[in-house]
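Input (DNA 3'-5' helicase):
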Amino acid sequence: MADLNALLGELNPAQLRGSSRTHHIVSSRSSRLVAVQHPLQVPLQILAGPGSGKTKVLTMRIAHLITNCYLPPWSLCAVTFTNKAANEMRERLVKLIGKDNTAQIKMGTFHALCAKFLRKYSRVVGIEGNFTVCDADESKKIIAKLLKPYKDTLSNKNITLKENSIVGIISKVKAKGWTADDARRHVEERNAETPQQRKARLEKGKNDLWEGEIGEILAEIYKSYEKTLRDSNSLDFDDLLVFGVKLFAQHAKASSWCRHVLVDEYQDTNIMQYDLMKHIARASQCVTIVGDPDQSIYGWRSAEVENLAKMERDFPTTQQIHLEQNYRSTSSILALSMAIVSQDKGRIQKTLHTAHPKGPVPVLRIFPIEQVEAAFVAAEIKRLVAYSGGMFNWGDFVVLLRYNAHSRAIENALQKERIPNRVLAGQKFFERMEIKDVLAYLQLVDNPQFTPAFLRVVNVPARAVGEKTVHQITLRAEELKISPMQVVERIIDGKIPDVKPPVKKKLFPFVDTLRILRKHANAGIAPSKLVNAVVDTINYADHLRKTQPDCDSRWDNVQELVNFASEVEGSAPDDVARRMHRADDDIHKEKGDESEEESEEEWADEVDEFDGDQAQPGQARAARGDTPLRLFLQASMLSTDTETPEEEKSQAKVTISTCHAAKGLEWPVVMIPAVECGVFPSTRAEDTAEERRLLYVACTRAQSLLYLTHTESRMMSGEYKPQTISPYVGAVRTDPQTKDLFTETLPALPLEDRKTIATVINRPLPEEIEVVRLVAE
Ligand SMILES: Nc1ncnc2c1ncn2[C@@H]1O[C@H](COP(=O)(O)OP(=O)(O)OP(=O)(O)O)[C@@H](O)[C@H]1O
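Output:
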């Protein structure tokens, strides 16, 4: 175990400022050190700007709580915004407190933590432990089906209501904690308003989708959607939080193990996530949060920046510590970023400073149209690689966009210049067709009630099971109040005799495959082997070859899924890993069914060690939450990553990303095109302050060079439309005090600037001769 005190001593001292709230902290020591060692029983808000090393402070605090305050690692709950952040934190903690201690900490996203506890305490909230997590794509399909009967009514009234929007609308109210009944009541109340009341409300700008006929349709769809999910024994992403809150609020035992809750990226937590934090911390009242209100950019996902104030109300002894040292950027980048965000007079005032030198001044340039702007981006990237003497490589550049759609011109320009590039916020790995096909088989193995998976793969690969047959199976399922999967199993077993032999024949390979897989899964074999078993049994490679022109890359993705499964196996809790190894041994010894059953019995008695020593005998069987397959499916469904690990490794490419997806990341050079009205802020944005923060987040990703560009006109709906500069940037440019924070002159990168860049990005300074050679080339 590393010497924590020595590591804490290494932290750079920074200026400490008391909170503007009631509780002031005054100390002459480093604010980071104070934050790490803050008394554990006093709730703490660490408010820190970009690049201030928030993750490091949170990680050190966890290590401090375990090493110096002697809290058992299993009594800590650490919540991160993405799985990537959780993995990063895990890696750092392994170095500080060792692998065993780290593995015991309950760490992950709010969704993953809820899923884990809901598996264990499913019955407390009235669900089955083998529930399937229904992803956004499946939710959309369910809603599309439920929307069909209303299509005519809507089109007669000239109303466009797409399944995508409904998924978003329902998700938004779920995040607020509304049930389907709450939604219906709300619509009834709205519809009972007098015309005067309604007029008064609308005058206050309180337009509401949940009213009138649309409101009624939405409420009906919401209700049926919930029913469909429950019938399929599945929870969507919002349900994980809704049921999680229900569990922790009603069942004190579920959180009695917890002695401290730590939350990263607190500024983006929504109401449900706040409630979760509050309930999990119920026994101890010990909470540490880290966040930056200036980086709150997920209002459209119902994040609540007000949660800071809420915490101070619910945990009245809360104290605040501000970390104001930025370790990432040059001071000229920081000065410009601060000039942008400080235009918001309503924000919590905080300053940020850096020990880094000034460095090259950020560039602001205007171009006639987006193609010229994109060509500039590509040419400038090439020029910088040369003028830096090769200190920059392609992987050091990012182009940050407000809209995905703007990537086309940039991609074209980079391709023309033969600059390798990758799109960061592209299709998520787990949303790819081939991945979803394989996962659907495994979901069905784990939860035969999960109808979306059945519908996806009953005819994949093609088995001549047509839509008509599927429709009949679904009707029969509704009649018998069982799932379609159970219907086809009964057909094969001859328990539904009125089915024609050809239909039975077509369905046989499907049921047979599922049964073989189920047998393996029940024995607990490793998920990586199960994935291989799926693709072998259904001959998926052949199916891809026959149906997909890009079958090779799709097959590579399937292989990547096997790798992912192996990684999940590697991090499985001991009890699950033991079960997996036993299953593998059983396969090797070719034992019969009897011994498989025996191992399942044993495992059931071991599984309930999750919360230390508090499990009661006899609870084990009911609590058999985690299986290797379930852990794997859960990790897949709750993955927040957009890339395959393989893509992540190939760093030597210019990155094109949305500003949202760049959160938490950094690059030596950042270029932000289209800083124009209608883009920053977006025409669709409800909250313009949030749009300003988004631009601030984008600028603060830069370590050494920053470019903002805009155009005179841009193609929109097939026509060039005149553009004006974003007000956030325009305000900086026109203010005499801040106008010099930009320059039009491109950085010539003289030796002094190259030295600064080398320090900031921590690279060796290239020889002068190399610069001359590359520039000449
Ligand atoms: N004490 C330190 N000394 C030197 N460099 C540091 C220190 N702490 C963090 N850094 C570096 O500063 C950069 C920013 O750190 P990090 O990404 O953890 O900040 P953050 O607060 O999470 O930022 P953001 O909120 O913008 O995502 C990283 O390159 C990190 O390695």
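The two ends are 51 Å apart (CA to CA).
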